[in-house]
Each structure stands twice: as C-alpha cells, then as structure tokens.
Specification:
Number of helices: 8
CATH superfamily: P-loop containing nucleotide triphosphate hydrolases
Radius of gyration: 17 Å
Order of helices and strands: EHEHHEHHEHHEH
Number of strands: 5
Number of domains: 1
CATH class: Alpha Beta
Largest sheet: 5 strands, parallel
Bound molecules: thymidine-5'-diphosphate
Distance between the termini: 18 Å
CATH architecture: 3-Layer(aba) Sandwich
Helix content: 55-70%
Strand order of the largest sheet: 2-3-1-4-5
Structural class: alpha/beta
Strand content: 5-15%
C-alpha cells in the first residue's frame, strides 16, 4: 500500500509526518520522501539552490523519483509493506508544471509522459490545503527560502493540486491544514487505518 502526503510549502507536512511516525508505529510503515530518499536527491538540492535551468531541475526530480522507486518503494511494496511518502509524483506535476511554463509547450503533458509506463500511482494521496496567506506566514519564520516559495508560485502549485484532486476524487483526500495539529494527525492516521482495513477486507471477502 502506497500513501503519499502532498501540499504546498508551509502547510505543515513535516510536522504531520513526524506525528504519524509515532501514531502509526504499530503498522510498521516505511516513511520516505521525495526529493532525497537516495543520493540523487543531493543533485536535486544542488539544482534547486543554484537555480539551474528548469528542464535540468525537472529531469533531476524525475531521476530522483526513479531511483526512489527502484531502490525503496518497489521492493517495499513487493514485500507487502505500508509505504508513506512525504511528496511524490504529484509534487512534480504541480510544481514543475509551473516552473516549465513557457519552457516546453505542454508542461503537464511532458511531465506525465516522463512518468508513463514505469512509475507507480499511489493508492491514496492526502493533500494538505491552506490559504496562501497562511502558508506564506508560516514560511516567513524559515530562513533561506527556495525559489518555489513565492506567492505566485505557491498559488499556481496549489491550484494544480486542487485540479488533480478534482480529477481523481477516489485517490485524493483533501485535508484542511488550518485545523489544529492534533485534529489533522488524527484525521490522516484514521484515514490510513481505514484504507488498510478496506483493502484487507477486499482481499478476504
Ligand atoms: P521538500 O524537501 O519537501 O521541502 P522542504 O525543503 O520544505 O523540506 O521539497 C523541496 C522543494 O522541492 C519544495 O519546495 C517542493 C519542491 N519539489 C518540486 O518542485 N518537485 C518535486 O517533484 C518535489 C518532490 C519537490
């Protein structure tokens, strides 16, 4: 079972993930992330920091995904493990559709084609949604902002995410990131348990 957690910067993904580690410990999940589950992630970080050209950056994100799938996600899923990833392919579709605008004719089509035939679609994706003002206010405390963390970019990225959730309502679960931390953690943890439960009862009718 592959669960992914998505959302723009500043929605509190890291805090949620830390809390889920203890809340879901009994399920023995494998927690992972994109970018950076493999050494390719170091190249991605460097590309972000140096603001290299958008095609190089996007390609490195895809390379990081391929390495992540082959070394970690696919072997874990083959063993029947629960995998929870902090960001995954929807980050690419949502962010790089923005950074590649005007660079390639159809950024989203280009990105989806890059994943076709080998990537694994998550079973469920929890999308943290927050007003852009609140997200920027939370990011204001952070030093060293990445080039993604600008109002226009975050707004466009969140709109992309919402369009994907609208298009695939059975995969996406929208999470109100303005709620109290405890409520968010409970909502997502309970949601993950329910998904596991229903997949078990489907397999053993
Ligand atoms: P992340 O490590 O989640 O952010 P943080 O530095 O706050 O821990 O991701 C780094 C940035 O990379 C974040 O702004 C989102 C962006 N990103 C993409 O643009 N495309 C992608 O495919 C992924 C996985 C992340």
């Amino acid at each position: 079972m592959l669960i992914t957690i998505e959302g723009i910067d500043g929605t509190g993904k890291s805090t949620l993930l830390t809390a889920l580690k203890s809340q879901l410990a009994d399920l023995d999940p494998i927690f992972t992330r994109e970018p950076g589950a493999t050494w390719v992630g170091e190249a991605v970080r460097r590309a972000i920091a140096e603001q290299i050209d958008p095609i190089t950056e996007a390609s490195l994100f895809v390379a990081d995904h391929a390495a992540h799938l082959s070394t970690l996600v696919r072997p874990a899923l083959n063993k029947g493990r629960l995998v929870i990833s902090d960001r995954y392919s929807d980050s690419r579709f949502a962010y790089q559709s923005v950074t590649l605008k005007g660079v390639v004719p159809d950024p989203e089509g280009w990105l989806r084609a890059m994943h076709d035939g080998w990537s694994i679609i998550p079973d469920r994706t929890f999308l943290l949604v927050l007003s852009i003002d609140d997200a920027l206010a939370r990011l204001a405390d952070k030093s060293g902002r990445e080039h993604f963390e600008k109002r226009e970019v975050l707004e466009a990225v969140q709109n992309n995410y919402l369009a994907y959730a609208w298009a695939e309502p059975s995969r996406f679960v929208i999470v109100d990131a303005a709620l109290e931390k405890e409520e968010i953690v409970k909502f997502v943890a309970d949601g993950i348990r329910q998904i596991l439960q229903s997949s078990k009862s489907h397999r053993q009718p």
